């Protein structure tokens, strides 16, 4: 008879249960009991094989495991094939870090085929490690027959699906604005965008109004490289804006910008003096027409009508 200790050792008990399941092939026996029953088909949203599992992937799998066990106890034959996402930027970036690559030129020098093989090896190694970790959590899935996005049958199924979609005229070609990573030199998904605060250079730009001579609406931007493609100016409809006559070097011009920034903008623009002409809300500016400040060197801009639009994201 084994002595019962005062302390419950969860780790030891869990390992013993896991070993019992493995020795007796418990998962397969439970699944086979329901083979003639109604099927419950489960598609595993696959995690990237970029390293060890984390709290998010563990939570995801534990919830799925609970639901699948419930469906099995309800008498369903549960098809619960595990899945792994083994393509894409997350894996490539990890391999680049491992190889200490700084630019895409490093990949070309290393050899594209060699880089692809290294990514494949990295993905498979992590899949094996993550499988062991999920098993240790007690998750029951068909770990011996997972679908892997790098396998030939999976790749061919994707091409087959695209072929069928094309044959049914379900594919469309068009233009769309996408996220672009300058380091990775490729488009990225919304979920792959990482935001962070940073201190960056910015500029003020004067946009001349079309119907008022020597009058400009002043904008501020940290992305001046987008100005050649500008087709609109945004103002907050509820903010207060001022029209001032500003003086510098014996000349004057009329400027429009947020009232709270009058002194700051004129000081940074090195204006010597100004007089306030008018105060209004941003909504009063909506529809105001202006000309592109670079239209003389970008003739294409002359084909567009540039207007002021309301936008509550303006701060």
SSE layout and pairing:
Blueprint (H helix, E strand, L loop, with lengths): L9 H15 L1 H8 L5 E3 L13 H19 L3 E3 L1 E4 L4 H10 L5 H7 L1 H25 L5 E7 L3 H16 L11 E3 L4 E3 L14 E6 L6 E7 L10 E4 L4 E9 L2 E8 L3 H7 L4 E9 L7 E2 L15 E5 L5
Parallel strand pairs: 1-2, 3-4, 8-11, 9-14
Antiparallel strand pairs: 5-6, 7-8, 10-11, 10-12, 13-14
What does this structure look like?
- It is a single chain.
- This protein has 315 residues and is of the alpha/beta class.
- The protein has 2 domains: 146 residues, Rossmann fold, CATH 3.40.50.620; 108 residues, Isoleucyl-tRNA Synthetase, domain 2 (Alpha-Beta Complex).
- The protein has 8 helices and 14 strands.
- The chain has a 5-stranded mixed β-sheet with strand order 7-8-11-10-12, covered by helices on one side.
- A hairpin with a 6-residue loop joins strand 7 and strand 8.
Question: Any descriptors?
Answer:
single chain; three-stranded mixed sheet; Isoleucyl-tRNA Synthetase, domain 2; about 325 residues; elongated; Rossmann fold; alpha/beta; about 25% strand
Question: What's the short version?
Answer:
The chain is an alpha/beta fold and 315 residues long. Helix content is 34%, strand content 23%. The protein has 2 domains: 12-157, Rossmann fold (3-Layer(aba) Sandwich); 203-310, Isoleucyl-tRNA Synthetase, domain 2 (Alpha-Beta Complex).
**Poorly predicted tracts of residues:** none
State the CATH superfamily name of the largest domain.
Answer: HUPs
Under CATH, the topology of the largest domain can be stated as Rossmann fold
Give the strand order of the largest sheet, numbering strands 1, 2, ... along the chain. Answer: 7-8-11-10-12
Q: Rough shape?
A: elongated
Largest sheet: 5 strands, mixed
How many separate structural domains? 2
Which CATH-level-2 architecture of the largest domain? 3-Layer(aba) Sandwich
CATH class of the largest domain equals: Alpha Beta
Could you tell me the mean pLDDT?
93
The number of strands is: 14
Residues in helix, %: 25-40%
> What letter string, H or E per element, gives the SSE order?
HHEHEEHHHEHEEEEEEEHEEE
Helix/strand-derived class?
alpha/beta
In DSSP terms (H or I, runs of 4 or more residues), the helix count works out at 8
Distance between the termini: 74 Å
């Amino acid at each position: 008879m084994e002595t019962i200790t005062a302390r419950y050792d969860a780790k030891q008990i869990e390992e013993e249960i896991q070993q019992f399941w493995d020795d007796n092939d418990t998962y397969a026996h439970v699944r086979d009991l329901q083979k003639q029953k109604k099927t419950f088909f489960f598609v595993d949203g696959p995690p990237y094989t970029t390293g060890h599992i984390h709290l998010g992937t563990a939570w995801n799998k534990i919830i799925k495991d609970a639901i699948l066990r419930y469906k099995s106890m309800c008498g369903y034959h549960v098809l619960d094939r595990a899945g792994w996402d083994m393509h894409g930027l997350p894996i490539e970036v990890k391999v680049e870090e491992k190889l200490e690559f700084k630019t895409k030129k490093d990949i070309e020098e290393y050899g594209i085929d060699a880089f692809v093989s290294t990514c494949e090896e990295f993905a498979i190694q992590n899949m094996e490690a993550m499988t062991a970790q999920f098993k240790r959590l007690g998750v029951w899935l068909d770990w011996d027959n997972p679908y892997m996005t790098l396998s030939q049958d999976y790749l061919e199924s994707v091409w087959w699906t695209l072929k069928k979609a094309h044959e049914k005229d379900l594919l469309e070609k068009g233009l769309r604005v996408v996220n672009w990573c300058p380091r990775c030199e490729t488009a990225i998904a919304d979920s792959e965008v990482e935001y962070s605060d940073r201190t960056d250079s910015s500029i003020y730009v004067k946009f001349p109004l079309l119907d008022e001579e020597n009058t400009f609406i002043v904008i501020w931007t940290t992305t001046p490289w987008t100005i050649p493609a500008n087709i609109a100016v945004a103002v907050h409809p509820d903010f207060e804006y001022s029209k001032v006559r500003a003086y510098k070097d014996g000349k004057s011009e009329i400027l429009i910008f947020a009232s709270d920034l009058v002194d700051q903008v004129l000081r940074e623009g090195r204006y010597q003096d100004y007089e306030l002409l008018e105060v209004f809300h941003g909504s009063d500016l909506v529809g105001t027409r202006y000309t592109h400040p670079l239209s003389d060197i970008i003739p294409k801009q002359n084909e567009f009508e540039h207007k002021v639009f309301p936008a509550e994201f303006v701060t």
